[in-house]
Amino acid sequence: MADRRVLFVCVGNAGRSLMAEALFNAEAPPGWRATSAGTRPAAAPNPRTGPLLRELGLELPNHSPQALTDEAMRSATIAVTMGCLDDASCPARLRDAHPQDWGLPDPAHLDEAGFRAVRDELRTRIRKLIVEIRRTDHV
Asked: I need a labelling partner for 110 at 20 to 30 A (CA). Which of 53, 104, 120, 127 fits?
């Protein structure tokens, strides 16, 4: 079975999308893998992203924040944005792809409890996505 991909996109690829990639890959259904990218990638992950993932026994993905590319979009079976469709940096081609938009706040602007709440909401939504993938993969 060919690998199928979930692409998580946020603006900086420094918080939400990196956490989503790590969370999905920790429980990915067979044949599925997540990647992440940003519409305007940061120079480095948010310094709180790694420690908050480690609270769950996970590590940051093994890449720096990276730019959203046409190839990443073409190779995605499912694309999920974190609210970046409203950002001026969002490319029209991403909007035209009609991704799922989870509309989560950027945790970089939140206190520790807010950052953790975004992480926990990602975990909940990713688990629901995985259930849906497993359901549709076995139809």
From this structure: 127
Of residues 58, 102, 65, the one with CA closest to residue 80? 102
Number of H helices, E strands in the chain: 5, 4
Place of tokens 């079976």: 77
Task: Please tell me the distance from the alpha carbon of residue 45 to that of residue 64, in angstroms, as a whole number.
Answer: 7
Contact 16, 107 (CB under 8 A): yes
Euclidean distance between CA atoms 23 and 26, whole angstroms: 5
**Which two three-digit tokens encode residue 86?**
């409203």
**Domain boundaries, given as residue ranges, for the chain:** 4-137
User: For residue range 57-94, what is the model confidence (pLDDT) as tens digits?
Assistant: 999 999 999 999 989 888 889 989 887 655 555 555 55
Superfamily of chain region 4-137: Response regulator (3.40.50.2300)
The pTM for the full model equals 0.89
